[in-house]
Specification:
This protein is α+β, with helices and mostly antiparallel strands and 251 residues long. It has two domains: 111 residues, Alpha-Beta Barrel (N-terminal domain of MutM-like DNA repair proteins); 115 residues, Orthogonal Bundle (Helicase, Ruva Protein, domain 3), CATH 1.10.8.50. The protein is 28% helix and 21% strand. It contains six helices and ten strands; from the N terminus they run H-E-H-E-E-E-E-E-E-E-H-H-H-H-E-E. Strands 1-6-7-5 form a four-stranded antiparallel β-sheet. Strands 2-3-4-8 form a four-stranded antiparallel β-sheet, covered by helices on one side. The longest helix has 22 residues. The model has no long low-confidence stretch (mean pLDDT 91). The protein binds a DNA duplex (14 and 14 nucleotides) through loops.
DNA sequence: CCCTATGTTGCGAA
DNA sequence: CTTCGCAACATAGG
């Protein structure tokens, strides 16, 4: 659920809280999706300091000693910094001796990844226009499916894809290689960067959850946008797209 | 009780 | 072979 903006704010706030803390213990509560055993995480991470923490696509990357610990939140993963609490649905935790960082997920899909493979797919906020344009040229599927597929560009999910396409005035089921690439590229950056700024301002200490109060069209409970446009809903497979009539359909 | 939410995976179809 | 579309999985909370 968490996409680039929420994760970016989370990463910044967590970094403030965690840099220079030493990992004293690790607990792997749910191992089925992890790429290492509890002993593997323990050996790599314990007695090492947190050097930095950043967002990479939809993952958080924590640099600990000479290792990278990636946390992938999937749909419902949440992070909490706690002292005495033991949050429900624990997946993994880093213990700093008193304070603990807990990854939880009621669907048990969130996972810790030790030393993830180096990333080759560019992030939506790092990708060059040239690369983005060439990637779109190769795709004949729905533009929305292209934007949300992490094999193309990383970090955008169902909700922000709707917001970006609304901003660009492009209908979600347009054919990817027919849409105005430059317009879409600009909207992608504008929407994501503005959301990071707004969430950062309104939730200066947020380390979990998401803030969708700034969304303009991905509004499951509303019939109209703030501008009074009727919100249309389309279901393709089980994914819903929210958009308005004025978004052009390129085919 | 039934429905909703959606990231990711994997398979069948084109 | 490649690419696309969709079903399947996970399950708390409304």
């Amino acid at each position: 659920m968490s996409e680039i903006p929420d994760l970016a704010v989370m990463a910044k706030n967590l970094e403030k809280r965690l840099v220079n803390h030493t990992v004293k213990d690790v607990v792997l509560h749910v191992s089925k999706n992890a790429n290492a055993t509890e002993n593997g995480f323990y050996g790599a991470l314990v007695n090492h300091k947190i050097k930095s923490l950043c967002r990479e696509g939809k993952d958080l990357h924590i640099e600990i000693g000479d290792h990278i610990l990636a946390l992938r939140l999937m749909l419902h993963g949440e992070l909490r910094l706690v002292v005495a609490e033991f949050p429900k649905f624990p997946i993994f935790e880093l213990d700093f001796g008193g304070m603990r960082l807990c990854l939880t997920d009621f669907q048990s899909q969130a996972r810790p990844i030790l030393n993830p493979d180096p990333v080759v797919v560019p992030d939506a906020l790092d990708v060059s226009f040239t690369f983005f344009h060439q990637m779109l040229e190769r795709k004949k599927s729905d533009i929305k499916a292209v934007l949300t597929d992490q094999k193309n560009i990383r970090g955008i999910g169902n909700a922000y894809a709707d917001e970006i396409l609304y901003d660009a005035g492009i209908a979600p089921h347009s054919i990817a290689n027919k849409v105005p690439a430059e317009k879409l590229f600009k909207s992608m950056r504008t929407v994501l960067i503005q959301a990071i700024e707004r969430i950062g301002m309104s939730d200066p200490d947020r380390i979990t959850g998401e803030n969708r109060s700034f969304m303009k069209v991905h509004l499951p409970d509303k019939l109209q946008t703030l501008k009074g446009e009727t919100i249309l809903v389309d279901k393709k497979g089980t994914r819903k797209s929210y958009y308005v009539k004025s978004q052009s359909f390129y085919k």
